[in-house]
Write a structure and sequence with these properties.
The chain is mainly α and 126 residues long. The chain has 8 helices and no strands.
């Protein structure tokens, strides 16, 4: 029996992944509610700091658009989040980051288009 069979079950593989930017928005909303109730904890706050630090987009509209752009291509949820989180700069870097054959269905021009769209969103996210 291989390690993956014990570690990753079908529910995990079928589940929806979230990018750091999406998690940051969710946790920030929850944090604001918790502060109103005066009930925050250190683990929650550190988790929020982590996802904010590694989020590529801060604007809720940009976060939504990143998911929209990436989900319009035939890639897995995991690959979508990897690309959304790491924001590769080249086709080669993109292909190296995703699961084997993850971008195989796309030609280099499609991958370049994805990267261009994501970089434009990043420029206007400030």
């Amino acid at each position: 029996m291989e390690f993956e069979e014990n570690f990753v079950d079908d529910d995990f593989l079928k589940g929806k992944c979230l990018m750091n930017s999406e998690v940051a928005l969710i946790l920030q909303h929850k944090y604001e509610k918790m502060c109103d109730e005066h009930s925050t904890n250190q683990v929650f706050e550190k988790s929020l700091q982590y996802v904010k630090r590694f989020s590529q987009n801060n604007n809720p509209y940009a976060v939504t658009q990143v998911r929209h752009i990436l989900s319009s291509y035939p890639i897995s949820e995991v690959d979508l989040c990897v690309l959304g989180n790491l924001c590769p700069k080249s086709v080669e870097e993109s292909i190296a980051m995703v699961q084997p054959k993850g971008l195989a269905r796309l030609d280099d021009e499609a991958i370049k288009k994805i990267l261009t769209e994501l970089s434009l969103l990043k420029k206007f996210d400030m």
